[in-house]
Every structure is written in structure tokens, then in C-alpha cells.
Write a structure and sequence with these properties.
This protein has about 170 residues and is of the alpha+beta class. It is about 30% helix and about 30% strand. It contains four helices and eight strands, in the order βααββββαβαββ. The protein has helices spanning about 15-30, 45-50, 110-120, 135-145, and strands at about 5-10, 55-60, 65-70, 80-85, 90-100, 125-130, 150-155, 160-165. It has an eight-stranded mixed β-sheet with strand order 1-2-3-5-6-8-7-4. α1 packs across α2. The radius of gyration is 15 Å and the shape is globular. It holds the Pfam family Acetyltransf_1.
Length: about 170
């Protein structure tokens, strides 16, 4: 059995997902970041992710160790990019990537993005778009390491975010 699995979240995962996100929110605050310091994300956002089939968990053995939202073709804020996307075709958006504090430093954010790339290809889509705060060097480093291209800025709740895209190749 592979050490990690990536699957759709279900309602029983919500408490663990929220715990992981609260840890990430506290880490961002401790780092002096403004990201996730305005009441977002919150349990209602995660519940909506799960209900809409967008919530995904990274599992190690039987334990939820990471979370992300994976959405096909829907991010209204991306239409108003200050810059230019690499493609204008179908895309997958990844949001709210968070890793349990007990599993930091193991490359699991990268692992989530690799699973998202697999999911994207399985859906015959070849573009992943994502964004992060300017003051989130760890996520920026993951995007750059995985070959995402910086495309410009997008805005969420009035704040600018660095926008990235990766065009996938056929496997």
C-alpha cells in the first residue's frame, strides 16, 4: 500500500480538516502573514467544499494529514488577473492547501499538488491555476519547484495574491 492516499473529503473528515486549517492559520499569523487572518477559511467554507465535492484530504495510513480544495473551471477572481494566464482552456484550481503541524517538513504540500496534477489529467484537463499571498514563501517555493509559472496578480477580499499556472503534459 502506498504511504499516502488522496481522496475526496467526507463530512466525518471536517473536524480534522478544521484542526489542520486552524494550525495553518496560526502558523501564518506567527510568520507575520496577513493570509487567512480575516475569518477565512472557516468551517462553513470547508463544509461547502465537501458538499460540492471540492474538498480533498491527504491520508497517511488512516490519518488525515493534509487538505486542499480542488475545483474544476471555477474561480471568478481569476478572470480579472493583472497579468496573463498561460492558457484560456479548462483548468483546475487548487485552494486552501494545509498540512498538519505534525507532518510539516515532509514535502506534503508538494505531494498534494502532485496528486492534483494526477486528478487534473484524469479529467482530461491540462492546466492547474493557483494563488498565494506574497508573504507565503513556503508555498511560493513549492509552486516554483514544481514548475508553476508566475502569471500576475489576482485579488481576494481586497488583497493581492500571486497567481500561478502550470500547463501539464500528457503522460
Amino acid at each position: 500500500m502506498a504511504p499516502y492516499q488522496f481522496r475526496q473529503a467526507n463530512p466525518t473528515d471536517l473536524p480534522l480538516i478544521w484542526e489542520i486549517l486552524q494550525q495553518a492559520i496560526m502558523r501564518r499569523k506567527a510568520d507575520g502573514s496577513n493570509q487567512w487572518q480575516d475569518g477565512y477559511p472557516n468551517p462553513a467554507v470547508i463544509q461547502k467544499d465537501i458538499e460540492q465535492g471540492h474538498g480533498f484530504v491527504l491520508i497517511e495510513k488512516d490519518t488525515v494529514v493534509g487538505y486542499s480544495a480542488v475545483i474544476i473551471n471555477h474561480e471568478p477572481a481569476y478572470a480579472a488577473i493583472e497579468g496573463k494566464w498561460l492558457t484560456n482552456a479548462d483548468f483546475v484550481v487548487v485552494h486552501r492547501v494545509a498540512i498538519a503541524v505534525t507532518h510539516l517538513g515532509k514535502g506534503l504540500a508538494q505531494k498534494i499538488l502532485e496528486y492534483v496534477a494526477d486528478f487534473t489529467r484524469q479529467n482530461h484537463i491540462y492546466s492547474i491555476k493557483a494563488d498565494t499571498n506574497f508573504d507565503n514563501p513556503a508555498m511560493i517555493k513549492v509552486f516554483e519547484k514544481l514548475g508553476y509559472s508566475y502569471c500576475g496578480e489576482v485579488y481576494f477580499r481586497g488583497s493581492p495574491r500571486k497567481a500561478y499556472e502550470k500547463v501539464l503534459t500528457y503522460k
